[in-house]
């Protein structure tokens, strides 16, 4: 584009031409950005990709740990409610659907980041901007309600996981303590367990409170990856011990139904859905990665590992114990110290996992609350909310 008007002779014309060059470069950058948006590249800009964040391995550790929790111990009973054929096929389908939906969620967040020039997008923002792009006028006008509803259910879901973890910790510790007098070193003789009554389960819950308070004070995903790695190791060891027990002496499975009564399938579905616990941590992990372009691969790998583990533990447990399978497979194991150590290892693993599940509701509630007060009150309010939320899950 040429300019014929001069403000100060030839020199002024030269200055105008020099001023037009950056605009041309900006147009090229914008064109390149639009092209990358259409290609579906990650939401973060190159500058943001080099910022300090979690590595691919740390993201994988968090993702696997976010899934593997207390639900895996109930999968053998879930298999009984679905059938020895229907159960594994249903778990495989649910794992595929969960992974596919997570990929859709991540792609939507990345697209809106490009469109709105934002460094990252949380669940609420993704839903709100998705509704704003809807062809429905009513949905566009009420897009902010979508954000509030999703944030509310995320808080309820993740806090619910934390409550389940507290109950699991208290019950398992109580079982170990009460059976300590009748626990032997002989794992081949499963004698009747004589329990020694101890304090109420609520007191066991209260005993975990100081440790949980210290854990939730860790607000960095990089630091939390240490606890997630420790939890993965302890749970892996415990699942290996369970597996080596159940593969010994698997009876003839011909008497087990391929497809169970349809009335009990809902029980299977509830346990299986509860087992896939990581939907709440997907976007936080993607937002905190150093190189978010690798996250789809990490997501597929992590969900494949989790789904294969679930199918293996659920199927083998049902094959081994059949109709005698209990609500938690640990209750079917002999009362010896080797298998009691499974409960102890799981207590350590779940205790370390609590902070990861707690991270999601904390990241929704605390930034909003601290933004309403003066800066000097932000840290005390942050600590108070964390303490109140942990105490709420122990009630």
From TrEMBL:
Tagged with keyword Transmembrane helix: yes
Domain annotation Amino acid transporter transmembrane: ranges: 53-365
Principal localisation: membrane
Membrane-topology descriptor: Multi-pass membrane protein
Any Gene Ontology CC annotation: vacuolar membrane
UniProt KW keywords: Membrane, Transmembrane, Transmembrane helix
Protein name: Solute carrier family 36 member 2
Organism: Phocoena sinus (Vaquita)
One term of GO molecular function: glycine transmembrane transporter activity
Transmembrane annotation, as ranges: 82-106, 149-168, 201-218, 225-247, 267-285, 297-319, 344-366
InterPro entries on file: AA_transpt_TM
Ranges for region Disordered: 24-49
Subcellular localization, as worded in the UniProt entry: Membrane
């Amino acid at each position: 584009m040429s300019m014929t008007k001069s403000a100060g002779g030839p020199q002024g014309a030269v200055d105008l031409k020099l001023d037009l060059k950056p605009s041309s470069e900006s147009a090229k950058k914008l064109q390149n950005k639009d092209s990358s948006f259409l290609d579906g590249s990650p939401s973060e800009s190159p500058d943001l990709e080099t910022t300090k964040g979690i590595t691919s391995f740390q993201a994988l550790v968090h993702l696997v740990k976010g899934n593997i929790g207390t639900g895996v111990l109930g999968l053998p009973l879930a298999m009984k409610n679905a059938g020895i054929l229907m159960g594994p096929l249903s778990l495989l389908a649910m794992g595929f659907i969960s992974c596919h939906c997570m990929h859709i969620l991540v792609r939507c967040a990345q697209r809106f980041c490009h469109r709105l020039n934002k460094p990252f997008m949380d669940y609420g923002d993704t839903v709100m901007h998705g509704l704003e792009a809807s062809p429905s006028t009513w949905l566009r006008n009420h897009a902010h309600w979508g954000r509030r509803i999703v944030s509310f259910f995320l808080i309820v879901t993740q806090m619910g996981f934390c409550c389940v973890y507290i109950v699991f910790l208290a019950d398992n510790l109580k079982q170990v303590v009460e059976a300590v007098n009748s626990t032997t070193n002989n794992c081949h003789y499963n004698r009747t367990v004589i329990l020694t009554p101890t304090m109420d389960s609520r007191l066991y819950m209260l005993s975990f409170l100081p440790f949980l308070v210290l854990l939730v004070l860790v607000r960095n995903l990089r630091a939390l990856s240490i606890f997630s790695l420790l939890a993965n190791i302890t749970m892996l060891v415990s699942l290996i011990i369970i597996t080596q027990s159940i593969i010994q002496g698997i009876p003839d499975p011909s008497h087990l139904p391929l497809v169970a009564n349809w009335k009990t399938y809902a029980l299977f579905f509830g346990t299986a859905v509860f087992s896939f616990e990581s939907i709440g941590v997907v976007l936080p992990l993607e937002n905190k990665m150093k190189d978010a372009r690798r996250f789809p691969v990490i997501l597929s790998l992590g969900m494949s590992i989790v789904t294969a583990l679930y199918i293996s533990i659920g199927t083998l447990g049902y094959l081994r114990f059949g109709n005698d399978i209990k609500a938690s497979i640990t209750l079917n194991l002999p009362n010896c110290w080797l298998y009691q150590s499974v409960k102890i290892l799981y207590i350590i693993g779940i205790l370390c996992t609590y902070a990861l599940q707690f991270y999601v509701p904390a990241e929704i509630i605390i930034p909003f609350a601290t933004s309403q007060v003066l800066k000097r009150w932000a840290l005390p309010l942050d600590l108070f909310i964390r303490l109140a939320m942990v105490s709420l899950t122990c009630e």
